[in-house]
């Protein structure tokens, strides 16, 4: 019988559609007619149910019954058309002969067209214009990698030939980085996720461009794979990936950069501090070079108190900024200049950030990441040696007042006055002399009320931003302010088409609605972008109402079985479903325990009223020996039978080796006291029973103690021990042990899922 892989044959020629940003990796889109043609060309395969025998007398060791079973299965088997999975194709550019393998994304392209990702267009030598040329990029080792080269053409739309081609499952692939200095910690997880999400096939000589964080791009050449051929399929297979440098020079350069990076991370007197952990109310001193970051982490703090992050810089240096990002399932990245939640980017030498404990970012935070960043002046050469900038960082729970003593008006005495030029307090008798000197040497800024020496560099370089209230005293601070808040060209988000003319707006976008923002999915438990190509948009009503990210909404559509009721529930609905179970748990009626003081059985809620009225609260097993068919409306005969049974236990015992009824059973007393036999006559036993019978006549059944079977007695003892812990009532503990047949571990799980705790009520 032929498999779909061997017999699926289909090919056609299609025009390349307009660029589509949703297509990445090796994904293509085909028209609906292509799906119909593929189904028509799909082979007919046999689908049979091998879980049951077709003949009743089948014996695999009997050749006659084996042959009969084979013929019966062939007659009963279903035959249907089936496409192979996954569908892969070979795409050829007839103008230059280049070929590449691809996987299908969806059948949504316009008729007669094919949608290609930008990587596939580069590999095929296509472009969106009417003219093109071809070129190949030589790698440092002399290998050839396909790049975005084009061939001259007079046609307005390029045409490609596409063939249905199933590829073998890959087991090994060797990639070669095209640049030196790649650190495996930087690209390993990115490469794994990028291949899993965006690739179905790999083509020999293909160029992989893996996007990294903060505008990084990792470029790899597909050099070799197994099994050998032009391409492999990387879906549903264990693929071993090997990274090798292109040549010895690149390997040596990579090693040198790695060692240099590790040496920079060490604490050097002339370098950037290494960062580390932070403690509340503890000052940390460090240094940072221009353009570098120093990362800190606060792990422990009182979640009910606000925090204040204070950065102090000596020498009035305004180039340092403090960036903060709470680390949580929704915020996984370290704070950076273009990606942070809180920041103080002002020109003040002392930076303060107040973190409210009621902030949604702080409520779900596992830790608080703090980064100290030194702004790099673009007018200075990055190769110039710069001295590190010292700073002091502190996180405290004492929120300082924003109004300092310098901001308050001074208190004047009767012989003091304020100078109108420098705003200082001077004695009245020396005011003329002070003003003569002050107006000659000092100048007052009318906008910020700052006082400067007339010939000082601070006054010559003093500036005020025409767009906001920021000001400074040097050209470097102005260039920093303009580059952050008023850049000449829009700032591009590296993960989407968003553009901003303010770095703070870009950072807010990247930590809120950016599709490329990384989150820890609560359903698949992987770090993934919060919005994939197939996920709904942020403006979707279901996304807004659910409080989930687009990825979580799509991933949460998978179903699973509820461990309490065995119903099939969507993952994203499981919380609500479990809350319904929790409400049912709290509103559940309390089970009634058998009135026999050593019995561990409970009474069903439907029978409780009848049992209390007719059976004195005894379970069926305990009441069975007392039952008679005689009419007894007042219960006098029943009380006599109870008296006789109790007296019989006292005088003769029950004869059970497990009995622990010490007070009202001869056998139980002997078992508990270690063999001491107690002889009780009718004359002695009746006074012992009389108080119980008197209470029973008044409706009090607390004195009833009948000998029971061993499992019931054991469950009652275990229930008493569990109830002694104070978490659950005795009746619930007995019910749990009865449901789980005396297994204490399972009974505790039953209580956790189905029983209310002591004092717990429905809200």
TrEMBL record:
Q: Where is the DUF7590 domain?
A: 271-398
Superkingdom as given in the UniProt entry:
Eukaryota
Where is each Ubiquitin fusion degradation protein UFD1 N-terminal subdomain domain found?
80-130, 169-245
Annotated spans, Disordered:
125-150, 259-282
Bias-annotated ranges (Polar residues): 271-282
> What keywords appear on the UniProt entry?
Ubl conjugation pathway
**Cellular component aspect of the GO annotation:** VCP-NPL4-UFD1 AAA ATPase complex
A molecular-function term among this protein's GO annotations? polyubiquitin modification-dependent protein binding
Q: Name one GO biological process term.
A: ERAD pathway
Task: List the Pfam families hit by this protein, alphabetically.
Answer: DUF7590 (PF24503), UFD1_N1 (PF03152), UFD1_N2 (PF24842), Znf_XAF1_N (PF23580)
Family under the similarity heading: Belongs to the UFD1 family.
PANTHER family documented for this protein: FUSION DEGRADATION PROTEIN (UFD1), PUTATIVE (AFU_ORTHOLOGUE AFUA_4G04640)-RELATED, UBIQUITIN FUSION DEGRADATON PROTEIN 1
Protein name, UniProt field: Ubiquitin-protein ligase E3A N-terminal zinc-binding domain-containing protein
């Amino acid at each position: 019988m032929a498999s779909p892989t061997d017999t699926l044959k289909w090919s056609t020629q299609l025009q390349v559609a307009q660029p589509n940003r949703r297509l990445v990796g090796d994904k293509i889109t085909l028209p609906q007619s292509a799906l119909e043609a593929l189904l028509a060309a799909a082979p007919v395969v046999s689908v049979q149910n091998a879980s049951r025998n077709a003949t009743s007398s089948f014996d695999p060791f009997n050749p006659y019954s084996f042959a009969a079973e084979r013929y019966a299965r062939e007659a009963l088997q279903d035959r249907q058309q089936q496409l192979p999975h996954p569908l892969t194709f070979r795409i050829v550019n007839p103008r230059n002969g280049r070929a590449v393998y691809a996987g299908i994304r969806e059948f949504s392209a316009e008729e007669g067209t094919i949608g290609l990702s930008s990587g596939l267009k580069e590999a095929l030598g296509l472009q969106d214009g009417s003219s093109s040329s071809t070129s190949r990029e030589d790698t440092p080792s002399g290998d050839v990698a396909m790049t975005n080269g084009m061939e001259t053409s007079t046609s307005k739309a390029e045409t490609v030939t596409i063939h249905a081609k199933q590829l073998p499952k890959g087991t090994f692939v060797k990639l070669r980085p095209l640049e030196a200095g790649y650190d495996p910690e930087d690209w390993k997880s990115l490469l794994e996720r990028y291949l899993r999400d965006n690739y179905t096939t790999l083509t020999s000589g293909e160029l992989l461009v893996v996007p990294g964080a903060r505008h990084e791009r990792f470029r790899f050449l597909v050099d070799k794979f197994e099994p050998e051929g032009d391409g492999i399929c990387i879906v549903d297979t264990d693929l071993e990936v090997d990274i090798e440098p292109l040549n010895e020079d690149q390997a040596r350069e990579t090693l040198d950069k790695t060692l240099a990076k590790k040496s920079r991370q060490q604490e050097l007197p002339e370098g950037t501090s290494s960062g580390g952990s932070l403690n509340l109310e503890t000052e940390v001193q460090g240094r940072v070079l221009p353009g570098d970051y120093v990362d800190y982490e606060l792990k422990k703090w009182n979640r009910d108190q606000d925090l204040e992050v204070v950065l102090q810089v000596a020498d009035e240096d305004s180039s340092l900024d403090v960036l903060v990002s709470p680390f949580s399932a929704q915020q996984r990245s370290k704070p950076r200049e273009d990606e942070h939640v809180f920041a103080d980017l002002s020109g003040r030498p002392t930076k303060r950030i107040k973190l409210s404990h009621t902030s949604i970012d702080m409520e779900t935070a596992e830790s608080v990441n703090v980064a100290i960043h030194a702004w790099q002046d673009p007018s200075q050469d990055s190769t110039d040696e710069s001295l590190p900038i010292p700073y002091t960082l502190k996180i405290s729970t004492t929120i300082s007042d924003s109004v300092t003593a310098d901001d308050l008006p001074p208190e004047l005495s009767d012989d003091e006055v304020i100078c109108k030029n420098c705003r200082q307090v001077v004695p009245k008798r020396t005011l003329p002399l002070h003003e003569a000197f002050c107006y000659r040497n000092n100048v007052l800024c009318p906008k910020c009320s700052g006082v400067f020496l007339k010939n000082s560099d601070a006054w010559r370089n003093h500036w005020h931003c025409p767009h906001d209230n920021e000001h400074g005293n040097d050209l470097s601070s102005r260039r920093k302010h303009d580059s952050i808040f008023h850049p000449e060209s829009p700032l591009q988000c590296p993960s989407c088409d968003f553009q901003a003319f303010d770095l703070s707006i870009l950072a807010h976008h990247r930590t809120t609605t950016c599709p490329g923002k990384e989150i820890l999915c609560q359903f698949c438990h992987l770090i993934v972008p919060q919005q994939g190509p197939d996920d709904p948009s942020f403006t979707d009503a279901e996304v807004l109402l659910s409080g989930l990210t687009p990825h979580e909404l799509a991933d949460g559509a998978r179903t699973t079985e509820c461990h309490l009721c065995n119903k099939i529930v969507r993952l994203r609905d499981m919380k609500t479903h479990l809350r319904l179970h929790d409400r049912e748990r709290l509103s559940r009626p309390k089970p009634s325990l058998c009135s026999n003081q050593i019995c561990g059985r409970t009474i069903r809620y439907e029978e409780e009223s009848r049992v209390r009225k007719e059976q004195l609260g005894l379970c069926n097993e305990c009441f069975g020996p007392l039952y008679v068919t005689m009419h007894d409306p007042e219960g006098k005969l029943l009380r006599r039978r109870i008296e006789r049974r109790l007296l019989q236990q006292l005088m003769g015992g029950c004869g059970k080796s497990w009995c622990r009824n010490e007070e009202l059973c001869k056998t139980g007393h002997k078992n508990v006291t270690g063999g001491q036999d107690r002889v009780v006559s009718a004359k002695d036993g009746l006074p012992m029973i009389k108080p119980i019978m008197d209470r029973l006549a008044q409706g009090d059944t607390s004195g009833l103690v009948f000998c029971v079977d061993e499992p019931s007695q054991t469950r009652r003892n275990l229930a008493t021990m569990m109830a002694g812990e104070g978490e659950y009532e005795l009746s619930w503990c007995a019910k749990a042990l009865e449901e789980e047949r005396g297994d204490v571990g399972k009974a505790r799980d039953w209580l956790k899922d189905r029983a209310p705790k002591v004092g717990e009520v429905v809200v």
